[in-house]
Design goal:
By secondary structure, the chain is of the alpha+beta class. Helices cover 51% and strands 19% of the residues. The chain contains 18 helices and 18 strands. The strands form four sheets. Strands 1, 2, 3, 4, 5 and 6 form a six-stranded antiparallel beta sheet that branches. A five-stranded antiparallel beta sheet has the order 8-7-11-10-9. Helix 3 crosses helix 4 and helix 12 runs antiparallel to helix 13. The longest helix has 67 residues. The protein is rod-shaped. The two termini are 41 Å apart. 27% of the residues are buried.
Length: 602
């Protein structure tokens, strides 16, 4: 036997093909939905990251552009001052008179005042020289005596710069007395035209809030922020700069400075940050946008909920449609199954409507052909059985035992010679009636009283033959007198009672025949007080091979078979016998005559 494969074992447990198809479609749909959900969620997350990076890149590029524009504007201001002749003459010309120097100073201070009044974001405007000369703001401020300005980073950066221009990171300006503000210093080296060397410096202290405003004007999500690093990784601006300097907050500056890409994701204690960078070619600064990935992906959760909702709706719709489709597909199969059950219960006139041309339709056509053949064979069999029964009945009707006939005729001759004319007339009349009934009437059934009449004629002959050996008693309840019964069911049993029961009894034997209604049925009893039967004979009374149980070809098995074929297995003959005490045969038939030929044909 071929071992079933895995799929057969999995789906073979379902009791219907519709359930198998529905579960299969649903399982495939769930699998497809899961694959779709995984791909869609990954794609959505990737798209959100990509869009977030593009969005943040645009913001920080704009911030970078704004800062570059701002610094360029300040560079232009410093260029105007540095390239004018007033500042260099005031700082480097040793031949000026005191009056000329004061006049020069007034012109420079006027320029400085104009610059400071026109821009709120400028804290300090100053020019200093190595020779100790300087001019600051409105002329009232002085350099801090304890600070060597030439040692400051922003001073050295401008002096060492190729372009002579430098922009510092944020710092506290301590070079000017009473200032000490957070500033960003734009410095430009001044060249002494007499020596051709850089011997001085012009610088502008920009308000720290100017850069802060440029960064804060562009927001990144709710918790996102922008900060600026210089070329060395020092913080130019940070929204939480005081916390940074106090060590209460840190940024992954090293990773940011080492990153060669435009974006970077860093995990910080279970929460990730997305950094997007843009470096300025003018200042060398790096503008960095920072955003928490959880903040960026908050819309992703909403998208996932929508995906789940849509997937659930689609799944329910597919299951419903699958149920309808599977029901329609399996409808011919269910119809074929129901028809098979009807055939199994004996309804061979069942017909399956074939509405498809596929394999199921082919099965339906084959089923219809099969049932038609079976129905034809059964009708033929019923017809043959009916004809056989009619032939058997005719044979039985014509099958009077020759010995019985010879013995009866001998008895008539003997009684005639003895002058017993009345007895001769009675026996001859009984024989005539017996012969007439046996060869007349082709009907298979007769009324019970006629079957009793036939037996009565037979017993009349037997009683006259055996004289003092036989007595009989017959009674038929009027309520069952007209109940139809098949022919020749009593005579064989009566004959057996005489030849196998009473004949071997030393004294006169008594035979009783009576019919009456019992529990909705008709019981016909043939009882004798003969020698009876033992248990072995009782057990085999209906065996076909017991030839000794019949004398005229109509034995007990034959009678039993005819009764049950006509009325059903619940009817027929029942024997009760006691060895040495007699035998009782009970024939049970229905009160309405049971199944007719027409019923059997159905």
């Amino acid at each position: 036997m071929k071992k079933p494969n895995l799929i057969t074992r999995m789906f073979g447990k379902f009791k219907s093909i519709q359930s198998t198809m529905l579960v299969s479609f649903s399982a495939l749909m769930v699998l497809a939905m899961l694959v779709f959900m995984v791909i869609a969620m990954r794609y959505t997350s990737g798209t959100i990251y990509e869009n977030s990076i593009n969005y943040m890149s645009q913001i920080i590029q704009q911030v970078n552009y704004d800062i570059d524009t701002y610094i360029e504007y300040m560079e232009n201001i410093s260029s105007i001052i540095a390239k004018s002749s007033d500042v260099p003459r005031y700082l480097f010309d040793q031949n000026q008179t005191e009056a000329e120097r004061e006049a020069e100073k007034e012109r420079i201070l006027t320029q400085f005042q104009t610059i400071m009044e026109s821009r709120d974001d400028i804290y300090n405007v100053a020019a200093v020289a190595k020779n100790g000369r300087y001019i600051i703001n409105r002329g009232d401020d002085e350099l801090t005596g304890y600070v060597d300005i030439e040692s400051l980073d922003w001073y050295q950066a401008a002096m060492e710069s190729k372009s002579g221009i430098a922009v510092s990171s944020s710092h506290v300006q301590n070079a000017i007395q009473s200032s000490y503000k957070w500033v960003i210093t734009l410095s430009r080296a001044l060249v002494n035209n007499q020596t051709g060397e850089r011997e001085g410096l012009f610088f502008v202290d920009l308000n720290y809030s100017a850069i802060s405003d440029l960064c804060n004007n562009n927001s990144i999500e709710e918790k996102g922020y922008i900060f600026v690093l210089d070329a060395e990784g020092n913080i130019v601006y940070h929204p939480k700069q005081q916390l940074m300097y106090g060590g209460l907050k840190t940024e992954n500056i090293d990773a940011i400075m080492e990153c060669e890409e435009d974006s970077l994701i860093i995990d910080e204690g279970g929460e990730s940050k997305l950094y997007t960078m843009s470096k300025s070619k003018r200042t060398g600064w790096t503008v960095v946008g920072a955003a928490y990935t959880s903040e960026l992906l908050k819309n992703n959760e909403q998208a996932q909920m929508w995906y789940l909702l849509v997937a659930s709706i689609l799944l329910l719709a597919v299951i419903g449609i699958s149920g309808i489709i599977s029901r329609e597909i399996t409808k011919p199969i269910r119809s074929l199954r129901d028809s098979m059950r009807k055939v199994q219960n004996g309804q061979f006139d069942t017909h399956v409507e074939v509405i498809t041309e596929n394999e199921i339709g082919s099965l339906g056509r084959s089923f219809n052909l099969m049932t038609s053949e079976i129905r034809a064979l059964m009708e033929q069999n019923v017809y043959e059985q009916k004809q056989k029964r009619k032939s058997e009945l005719k044979a039985l009707q014509a099958q009077i035992n020759p010995h019985f006939l010879y013995n009866t005729l001998d008895s008539i001759i003997w009684m005639s010679e003895a002058g017993e004319n009345d007895e001769v007339v009675e026996m001859t009349s009984a024989l005539a009636r017996l012969l007439r009934q046996s060869i007349s009437n082709d009907q298979e059934e007769v009324e019970l009283e006629k079957e009793i009449e036939y037996v009565k004629n037979y017993l009349t002959i037997q009683k006259m033959r055996y004289k003092d050996k036989l007595e009989f008693f017959i009674y038929v309840d009027p309520r069952v007198a007209h109940v139809p019964v098949i022919k020749l069911v009593l005579q064989p049993l009566v004959e057996n009672a005489i030849y196998h029961g009473i004949k071997y009894k030393e004294t006169k034997g008594n035979l009783k025949i009576y019919a009456k209604p019992v529990d909705g049925r008709v019981e016909i009893v043939v009882a004798d007080d003969g020698i009876g039967m033992d248990e072995d004979v009782m057990e085999h009374i209906f065996d076909e091979h017991r030839k000794e149980q019949k004398r005229n070809g109509v034995g007990v098995p034959n009678v039993q078979k005819r009764l049950q074929l006509q009325y059903g297995s619940e009817y027929g003959i029942r024997y009760e016998s006691v060895k040495g005490a007699g035998t009782k045969v009970v024939i049970t038939i229905p009160t309405d005559g049971g199944r007719t030929d027409e019923k059997m044909d159905d």
